[in-house]
Design brief:
4-stranded antiparallel β-sheet, 47% strand, 3-stranded antiparallel β-sheet, 0% helix, single chain, 106 residues, mainly beta
């Protein structure tokens, strides 16, 4: 007896530009910048939210959190270039790069 099986792929896991919110640093050398992401097309929780990069002062930044929530905000960031990475429970990963600008000189 021959049996047939169908394997289904999960829905596409992605981040669109509208899913990212960037709060710029308000003062020169400030550390009140933030990058937030909201997943609209998500697969399986939990999600590993990671941010890495370096601030304009040269300090490396690397933060990570495991969450069942479809959104997360990395706060307390200095001006700099950051890469945001989200990985779902089955290992699918998406990345996006963002820049937090320096605040005005006082």
């Amino acid at each position: 007896m021959k049996q047939e099986y169908t394997l289904m792929a999960p829905e596409e896991f992605l981040i669109s530009p509208n899913d990212i919110s960037v709060t710029q640093v308000s003062c020169f050398n400030g550390s009140n910048g933030a990058i937030a992401v909201t997943l609209k097309k998500a697969t399986l929780a939990p999600y590993q939210y990671e941010i890495s990069g370096s601030s304009v002062t040269g300090l490396p930044v690397s933060k990570s959190i495991l969450s069942n929530n479809l959104s997360y905000q990395f706060a307390g960031l200095r001006a700099g270039n950051y890469t945001l990475r989200v990985t779902d429970a089955i290992g699918c990963t998406i990345c996006d790069q963002h820049r937090n600008k320096r605040g005005p000189d006082l």
